[in-house]
Amino acid sequence: MNFTPVGRYLLVEPIEIKAKKNKTAKVLLPDSYNAKNTPRFKMCRVVKAGPDCNSQIAANTLAVIETPMVEKVEVLDNIFFIILENHVVGLVEE
Questions:
Q1: pLDDT in tens, the chain (94 residues)
Q2: Which of 87, 55, 90, 49 is nearest to 70 (CA)?
Q3: Which CATH number covers residue 60?
C-alpha cells in the first residue's frame, strides 16, 4: 500500500540506533506508557514529502526530528509514521 503525505507532512521511517557491540536495544512498552526519559530527538529517513514542503527535505534525506511529534497512522493493517515539516530540527549527511 502506498501512502502519500499532503500539505507540509513528511512520511518518515524511524531509524533504530544500534547499541554498543552491534546489538540493537529494543524494549516493548504499552501504548499508554509515557516515558520521562524518552530522548527528545531521534533520527529518521524521509520516505516522501508533501507537496507544500521545503525542497531541501527530499526522499532518502536523513533528518533529526522531535520524538514526541511523530504521529503513527494505521490504515488497513498498515502502519505509517508522519511528522510536520516544522518539527524537523536538522538534516544529516552520511
A1: 899 999 999 999 998 766 555 555 565 666 655 656 678 899 999 999 999 988 788 889 999 999 999 999 999 999 999 999 999 999 998 7
A2: 87
A3: 2.30.33.40
